[in-house]
Specification:
The structure is a single chain. The chain is α/β, with parallel strands linked by helices. It has two domains: 6-36 and 297-427, Lyase, Ornithine Decarboxylase, Chain A, domain 1; 108-291, Alpha-Beta Barrel (TIM Barrel). It is 30% helix and 24% strand. It has helices at 21-28, 37-54, 71-80, 89-97, 114-123, 133-145, 185-194, 216-236, 262-279, 293-296, 330-334, 423-426; strands at 6-8, 14-16, 19-20, 32-36, 60-64, 83-86, 105-107, 127-130, 150-157, 179-180, 199-205, 242-244, 286-289, 300-311, 317-321, 340-342, 350-356, 365-373, 381-385, 406-410, 413-418. The strands form three sheets. Strands 4, 14, 15, 16, 17, 18, 19, 20 and 21 form a nine-stranded mixed sheet that branches. It has an eight-stranded parallel beta barrel with strand order 5-6-7-8-9-11-12-13, surrounded by five helices. A hairpin with an 8-residue loop joins strand 17 (350-356) and strand 18 (365-373). It is globular and about 70 Å long. It starts with 5 loop residues before the first strand and ends in a 5-residue tail after the last helix. 46% of the residues are buried. Bound molecules: ligand LLP. Ligand LLP binds next to helix 10 and helix 11.
């Protein structure tokens, strides 16, 4: 199987985190997001241990909440001792309402409004990751008005192509995020930040992309960032105490995707960082990263009920489900690949189908050209694997379909983390 939390019992019925997927679908209905809480915690611990072993005191992973943001996630993160990266007042409010400590929140975003800045300052968010010069000025003024000195990191664009799909390539010089080194603007950004009396400039941030598999991407990022830190020291006589390299490690969506040995990659990053810092005669800063996908993706599965099987002789066949681009827009947006499994049958003849949703447009495909048993029919259930990241968090109410619930699986038990939306919820804001 794709990941070791997906198995089958003797009869061939699908199990997720050791629990019967059909029984869960009977109990909670479909479409249904399942999240394996034990796996989420295991992934957090993998990062926490690697950070402790390779980077030392003061360094730590921050969970990127954009991958999956709801209260239970932040309770888990608080209990595991993770920091978090948040990108909106909504994510911050969700974390705080789960009891997540404000001081461990790093607040991102390239378009923070005055209201956003005020909200985060008033909630006591630990660190702002400042994206641009406009934000720098507004944040400094807002901090001054409150008589505080706000800790910040400055988002720098290192100019790296991580060879991932365009929409999630964030390291190249001309992306909308951060301030590029190559054009000389990053140095001016640092210089300006150092004149802001109500900002405590702790260090630098960068994020080069998501679904990154190439091993040397982070090593090249280290080289560029340490090179820039040395220039800043030489030119402005400043030594930073924090360095954040963002998120991005890839995960396996299909059997063709490679396995990422994340602790091994982190060990290499630590070695390279120490080597480059000592060559530049710079001290080791607190080291941060912001994994999202690699914490939650393999903890997720989406279960659908088949509504119709449609054969168009000489063309193709569809399996039409009770979900679609509303609960998983990733194929539509990025051409993302997924592994799809029937929850019961695994033997016998198979056929190729496009797995479609029930939205009113032909592009509403969850995954094209998947293999399912011949004889798959209305009422059967299918599961899409590895949907823990960027599925629930990107779900919409297109066509006014209510969003599915999120059910957590923990030590052999299940419980609702997010209840199913109703049609009343969907029209609740209409005046
Ligand atoms: N830090 C920053 C500043 C980010 O922009 C991101 C992701 C992360 C951390 C977490 O990256 P991860 O470890 O999850 O790769 N919706 C797209 C992914 C967008 C990623 C945006 N930024 C998708 O479904 O593939």
């Amino acid at each position: 199987m794709l990941t070791d939390n997906i198995t089958r019992d003797e009869s061939g019925a699908l199990l997720f985190a050791g629990q019967s997927v059909n029984a869960l679908a009977d109990r909670y209905g479909t479409p249904l997001y399942l999240m394996d809480e034990d796996r989420i915690r295991q992934n957090c611990r993998m990062y926490l241990e690697a950070f402790r072993d390779y980077f030392g005191e003061g360094s730590r992973p921050l969970y990127a909440g954009k991958a999956a943001s709801f209260r239970q996630m932040y309770r888990i993160m608080a209990e595991e001792g993770m920091g978090i990266d948040a990108v909106s007042p909504g994510e911050i409010a969700t974390a705080l309402s789960a009891g997540f400590p404000a001081e461990n929140i790093y607040y991102h975003g390239d378009g923070k409004t005055d209201a956003d800045i005020a909200f985060a300052l008033d909630k006591g968010v630990g660190c702002f990751i400042v994206d641009n010069g406009d934000e720098l000025i507004s944040l400094n003024e807002a901090a001054e008005a409150r008589g505080i000195r706000q800790k910040v990191l400055l988002r720098i664009t290192p100019g790296i192509d991580p060879h991932t799909y365009a929409a999630i390539n964030t390291g190249a010089v001309d992306v909308k995020f951060g301030v590029p080194i190559e054009t000389g603007q990053a140095m001016e950004f640092v210089r300006a930040a150092m004149t802001m009396e109500n900002l405590d400039v702790a260090g630098l941030h960068c994020h080069v992309g998501s679904m990154v598999f190439f091993e040397n991407v982070y090593l090249r990022t280290v080289d560029l960032m340490v090179g820039f830190m040395a220039e800043v020291r030489d030119e402005l006589d400043i030594t930073f105490r924090e360095l954040n390299l963002g998120g991005g490690y890839g995960v396996r969506y299909t059997d063709d995707d490679p396995h990422s040995d994340i602790p091994a990659r982190l060990r290499e990053v630590a070695a390279r960082l120490k080597e480059k810092l000592s060559a530049a005669d710079l001290p080791l800063p607190n080291f941060l990263m912001e994994p999202g996908r690699s914490i939650v993706a393999d903890a997720g599965m989406t279960v659908y009920t088949v509504c119709s099987v449609k054969r168009i002789p000489g063309y193709k066949s569809y399996v039409i489900t009770d979900g679609g681009m509303t609960d998983n827009p990733r194929y539509c947006l990025y051409g993302a690949e997924y592994t799809v499994l029937h929850t019961e049958k695994r033997r016998g003849l198979r056929a190729i189908y496009d797995l479609a949703g029930r939205c009113c447009e032909s592009g509403d495909i969850i995954q094209p050209a998947i293999s399912l048993p011949v004889g798959t029919h209305r009422g059967d259930r299918v599961a899409v694997c590895t949907t823990g990241a960027y599925n629930y968090s990107m779900a919409s109410n297109y066509n006014r379909f209510p969003r599915p619930p999120v059910v957590m699986l923990r030590r052999g038990e299940s419980f609702l983390a997010v209840r199913r939306e109703t049609v009343e919820d969907v029209c609740a804001l209409d005046i």
